[in-house]
Amino acid sequence: MARILPQNKAAAVNPLKSSQPLGAALAFLGIDGAMPLFHGSQGCTSFALVLFVRHFKETIPLQTTAMDEVTTILGGADNLEEAILNLKTRTQPKLIGICTTALVETRGEDSAGDIAAIKLKRAEEIAGTEIVLANTPDFSGAVEEGWAKAVTAMIEGITRPGERARQPKKVAILPGCHLTVADIEHLSEMVESFGLEPVILPDISGSLDGTVPDRWVTTTYGGTSIEDIRELGTAGQCIVIGEHMRGPAKVLHRLTRVPYVLFQSLTGLKDADRFISMLSAISGESVPAGVRRRRAQLQDALLDGHFHLGGKKIAIAAEPDQLYQLATFFVGMGSEIAAAVSTTDMSKILEKVPAESVQIGDLGDLEALAAGADLLVTHSHGRQASERLGLPLMRVGFPIFDRLGSQHKLTILYQGTRDLVFEVANIFQANRQAPTPEKLNPLRKRETSDGPRPSPLTRH
């Protein structure tokens, strides 16, 4: 069990984490026809918007209640009402996902009460639009907590409660925020290959996959539909990926009695086997030949890759569930976790990270702990530490703004694990130093106290 070392600095040095509101907004962006709304100042929204645009390289629908000095003192209920009405009139969203920021949370505003009053007062004007609130103060938690709170809020606010007639072939999937667009798309295709019907909440693979619509759309286009969220209770089984999604799964089970199975990781042969076996059991179908072939390819990749990864020291900084996913992958390949840094101590998964300790901190902590490591693994803000330490950087997580296609990188199940093995092995090969004669034979130039050591080929 890893020891969790608390943050011990008064200021972040090269911050690692992003805020809860950003995580909640990302979850709302996975809903069709949605408009995330930050309840706070314009600066909070602008910062998140810049990160989203740089990471996804897409136009991101994100709005703000634009609280100023006066509304900060007198209260922001009027700004919230005006923002909701303006969005309804101008963009006709199917969902307005409200994410509170530190400004209103510190002030202690009753956002839930304000929204209830707005719904009652403006029922006719906002009819046809779901309004969901996620309380996400910046000063607590990180992206994982914000994502989970938004999913929980959508289930509580939209899903029909009570036990319903189940559809045995329908599978509800609650993915963690650490899964990429490619991961979620691959997950859906894998479930469908067993003759099952996946309903993914939220589904960023439908809205942030880099397609170009044939017309200008002011909200998200693609993703989970409101009707799918409403009918989650008819699923025969719920699959949960990531420890931070346990809370939303429990809420869904409490409201609808839909059973759930939690996968803390889908990367690696063992975890992928468990997932595929479960799909086979749910569907009653045998594993398709194509899936078996992908498994065989992974087995071969594991044999090829362990020569390059075995014995390597890895330094990782990531959100808790992604840290666990990557650490278990590297340890499974024979590597050693030399440093593990995460954003928050609110996740129980940190105790299972295969490392001596997990430091709650920033990229400054990663740089201090990574001396002697062979590889840095974190997002794009780790590039300065990589340069200073002279270590290669494997970019993962959010944000990745200095590379294209990060959202289309596959990291789960047989194919994703195979691709990870190849990526890491290629990084090590590209950064391998050519051996020098001195390294090959350390005795070559050694001198004795009486002078140079004679060559073993010298005749006497």
Description:
The chain has 3 domains: 8-158, Rossmann fold (3-Layer(aba) Sandwich); 167-288, Nitrogenase molybdenum iron protein domain (Rossmann fold, 3-Layer(aba) Sandwich), CATH 3.40.50.1980; 294-430, Nitrogenase molybdenum iron protein domain (Rossmann fold, 3-Layer(aba) Sandwich), CATH 3.40.50.1980. It has helices at residues 20-28, 42-56, 69-74, 77-91, 102-107, 111-121, 143-158, 181-192, 226-230, 246-256, 269-283, 289-309, 320-332, 363-369, 383-389, 413-430, 437-440; strands at residues 3-5, 34-39, 63-64, 95-100, 130-134, 167-174, 197-200, 235-241, 260-263, 313-318, 336-342, 357-360, 375-378, 393-395, 447-448, 451-452. The protein is α/β, with parallel strands linked by helices and 460 residues long. Strand 13, helix 15 and strand 14 (393-395) form a beta-alpha-beta unit. Helix content is 42%, strand content 16%. The longest helix has 21 residues, at 289-309. It contains 17 helices and 16 strands.
